[in-house]
Design brief:
Two copies of one chain form a homodimer. By secondary structure, the first copy, chain A, is of the alpha/beta class. In chain A, helix 4 packs parallel to helix 5 (101-111), helix 7 packs across helix 11 and helix 11 (235-257) packs antiparallel against helix 12. Chain A has helices at 13-24, 38-46, 57-61, 73-83, 101-111, 154-166, 176-199, 203-206, 211-216, 224-233, 235-257, 262-280, and strands at 5-9, 30-34, 52-54, 66-69, 92-95, 116-117, 119-122, 143-147, 170-173. In chain A, the strands form two sheets. Chain A has a six-stranded parallel beta sheet. In chain A, 53% of the residues are buried. In chain A, strand 1 (5-9), helix 1 (13-24) and strand 2 form a beta-alpha-beta unit. Chain A is 50% helix and 12% strand. Chain A folds into two domains: 5-174, 3-Layer(aba) Sandwich (Rossmann fold), CATH 3.40.50; 179-280, Orthogonal Bundle (6-phosphogluconate dehydrogenase C-terminal fold). Chains A and B meet through helix 7, helix 8, helix 9, helix 10 and helix 11 of A and helix 7, helix 8, helix 9, helix 10 and helix 11 of B.
Chain lengths: 293, 293
């Protein structure tokens, strides 16, 4: 089975990994990669990816059976406006954006019935970005969320699910709003927190930091531009979850201020035990993606 | 060079790693390990550690030139009371406790001039504990903080420094109070934060968690009992640093609530950039300690 002609628009970490995975698994008839940067296209040519390369997005999507939008969130709508008249009406169009409410809200009305559109978000990646970090096994056992709305045609849900499954993903269906709330909890808020923690740590203390601190704050090495975009696109939900966390931290502060009282120690211990247990339930990734400190 | 007769009281992750490192590096004349649990001693015997094993702490420290207290913080003072009359007056006595103000404050008056006492804290370890997790290279390039006070004799500072250096550590001298503040920032507060984050994340969201979330919350897998002890022993300082962080998070929440204003986006981006830069300055560990998820 192949997905026919696949167009990847924006071969960064995500797009590049999709290209490598499709090629390695023999899942593609023809692979076309679009990027507006000649240097980026040259990097991909040099890496030997078996794909046609173009700096014309309309050219890339013409005759494509599957189109994957892998550009930054804020560039998506502009790109869709550029390509929409060149799409085959039977094309599956999806994206890899980390926020779905705003992206789906913009793209859905732009595409209408011009193609089979559905939003996607593969929960894979790292603090790294760019094609140099791409890996053919990035999606192996990763959750990939597809986000149908009331307007989504069942065939789009079906085909997007098959596509991500073929790359190794565990497909999960959620509405864009539920997606944004869950991802705020497990990705956006942790990112904000890691960055805040680093900013609030004195230079002298950072000098003493060991493996635990490096782990806790690893995500804070991610691109500030990318993350400003992500946090802004999901700002309302992240703000709401952050408010809840602040409330929780205030209770912990109160417990620490009376740490000699047995009830405070019990509260601390109960919280730590709950955290240890909940963390032990997190499913293990099978991705062999190398981690860099 | 050897350190003569070395007694390790409490062979968990820290004590066990010290024993393995001393043996591997040929730094010890005679190695004596004390634990009150026969099962633990049997575990060490089975691992083939070249040491005399005893369940009598007074027996362990008799004739010892170096004594390392590796029991939980709250057991330290009781243990020191038990052994202090059996110590050689020339013995170097130190510990590996994660909090120094309370530990040093208790032990210093108990020992007086009965031995050369100074507090130590090797900034190494992981969310694991127990002898099974011990590694001979745990201290390789790790910061080891020694905490002299006005009462500490210069020979104690000197000898403790030589000891940790010989195990591969980078020795740093700080007062117990400065130690506790820095460690609150890079270890105790991050631990509390990771645990709070896990507790505030819904089960449905945890199901989607990827590598970033696992990294951010790895420390929350640590022993709840051990960490209740640590956080309680440094409660005042941790509460103060937590208050500062909450303040910072409240400002971030306000920025997110006005994320469509350019000034808010600029504030977010500046914060993320500062975090990325600061994190890139954290020194790299050379420990080969295996990380488990």
């Amino acid at each position: 089975m192949t997905f026919g002609r696949v167009a990847i628009l924006g071969p960064g970490l995500m797009g590049g990994s999709i290209a490598l995975a499709l090629a390695e698994r023999g899942l593609v008839g023809r692979l076309v990669i679009y990027d507006r940067s000649a240097a980026r296209l040259e990097e991909i040519r040099a890496a030997g990816v078996p794909a046609e390369l173009t700096d014309d997005p309309r050219e890339a999507v013409r005759e494509a059976d599957v189109v994957i939008l892998c550009v930054p969130i804020e560039a998506m709508a502009g790109l869709v406006r550029e390509i929409r008249d060149a799409l085959k009406p039977t094309a599956l169009v999806t994206d890899v954006g980390s926020v779905k409410g705003s992206v789906v809200g913009e793209i859905e009305p732009l595409l209408g019935d011009r193609a089979f559109w559905i939003g996607s978000h593969p929960m894979a990646g790292s603090e790294q970005s760019g094609f140099a970090a791409a890996h053919s096994d990035l999606f192996e056992n990763a959750a990939v969320i597809v986000t149908p709305t009331a307007q989504t045609r069942p065939e789009a849900v079906e085909r997007a699910g098959q596509f991500w499954q073929a790359l190794g993903g565990r497909v999960v269906r959620l509405s864009p709003e539920v997606h944004d709330d869950r991802v705020a909890q497990i990705s956006h808020l942790p990112h904000l927190l890691a960055a805040a923690l680093v900013c609030e740590t004195s230079e002298e203390a950072l000098d003493l930091a060991a493996g635990g601190f490096r782990d806790t704050t690893r995500v804070a090495s991610g691109s500030p531009e990318l993350w400003t975009e992500i946090l802004s696109a999901n700002a309302e939900t992240v703000a709401c979850r952050l408010a809840g966390l602040i409330h929780y931290l205030q209770a912990l502060q109160a417990a620490l201020e009376k740490a000699d009282e047995p009830s405070s120690r019990l509260a601390l211990r109960t919280m730590l035990k709950k955290a240890q247990h909940a963390r032990s339930q997190i499913p293990e990734s099978k991705s062999k993606l190398k981690k860099h400190s």
